[in-house]
Amino acid sequence: MDFEDTPELATFRAEVVAFLDEHAGPKHGDDRDWSRNGAATDPVVAEDYRRRCREWQQLLTDHGWAGLTWPERFGGRGLSPAHQMVFNQELGRYDATAGFITAAQALVGPTLMQHGTPDQQERYLHPLLRGDEWWCQLFSEPGAGSDLAALATRAEQDPATGEWVVNGQKVWTSNAQHADFGILVARTDPSAPKHHGLTYFVVDMRTPGIEVRPLVQAQGVAHFNEVFLSDVRIPAENVVGEVGDGWKVTRTTLRSESSMISGAGQATTFANVLALARRCGGTGDPVLRQRLARVYTDELVLRWMGWRTQTAVMTGRYELALHGSLLKNFFTGAFARRVDLAMDLEGAEGMLWHEAEGDGFWQYQFLNQFASRIGGGTEEVHRNNLGEQALGLPREPAVDRDVPWNETRRS
Ligand SMILES: Cc1cc2nc3c(=O)[nH]c(=O)nc-3n(C[C@H](O)[C@H](O)[C@H](O)COP(=O)(O)OP(=O)(O)OC[C@H]3O[C@@H](n4cnc5c(N)ncnc54)[C@H](O)[C@@H]3O)c2cc1C
User: Fold this and answer.
1) pTM above 0.85, yes or no
2) Which domains does the chain have, with CATH numbers?
């Protein structure tokens, strides 16, 4: 396989580098980098990080570097996934990020492009691309995570106004406390089997009846939230896709999610770990050198896995595309190896928090590995997907597949 750039991609890469050289500084791989402050526990630093993410996304948009693969009619450049990959590779060397905006674009963008009405596309896609409006994903519930289709949040249509009235609770909602809009899945027909009778909505997070309660994690920050919905009124035009056909729309979002998690720009890279090894004097130890080589290899393997999938999509040879579950699980395994090594390099100091090298950056990332192995589908559930969808193994028994949801047994 030839991993060199084609002449067209080489020209594009040179343009990317020229743009980044002009607008961003090099990444140092230590606490001089503002782009690592998504992990900040100091609210002032965290707010500054969000401001800079927004400004960076606006700069990208204004200079034609946002939405590289989005169709031109939605404000993108209609380029190939390989162009996006080249951009991400180069961006990884600079101290710049759009943070959660990138994730929101991956979740909401393809979903609205594929299932949204022209009015919804017109209203939401450009501000999403520019990072002017922030989004969250209101899917998981206390009783529905891996088995998302079992969700119980209820939406009933008010016959007088046509509005949908939503009641229920969501949980683990990343970024809800900063979001302007949410993508929400709710049950509109409880008498249908669980995958049917769901409807997908866009909800304005400032609607009366929405209460967001941040959940503070072990790292001391609230990445995600509980969201309580009490008689929340959603206009009929905010339904995405057909009423009762929300599972189809949800699947589009979920498909984008696992690829996004494994393909997004990473807060930690081999370069970070190597810089840490040099500072801690770990580069002479043969065992640590071997682990550094493994981290380096992981990074290359991940890049090639992404490259192979994107090439398959570009050439229409879908049989060569790697399953999103494979990418996600390899990514989380590589992440775990990277942060475990960083903690070992810090040695006894790794047991500290803000007093440790880099103001607790590696301690945050070490704890974050567990979240990344659960968010976007757990490793076990992705293995099930691989077994059933890639290897053709027998499906898991599902006692509730054709049973009306309101007759299923739930905790
Ligand atoms: C950092 C982070 C961010 C998140 N952000 C969001 C968000 O923005 N919006 C949102 O809606 N959700 C979000 N989530 C929720 C996430 O999607 C769920 O946590 C995940 O799908 C697992 O669901 P659960 O937590 O209910 O665990 P459960 O589904 O209760 O699983 C518990 C355990 O049982 C195992 N298990 C369950 N079913 C099976 C099975 N069939 N076979 C084998 N093992 C199984 C799981 O692997 C897990 O170990 C986020 C989660 C995290 C950690």
Assistant:
1) yes
2) 7-98 (1.10.540), 135-247 (2.40.110.10), 266-377 (1.20.140)
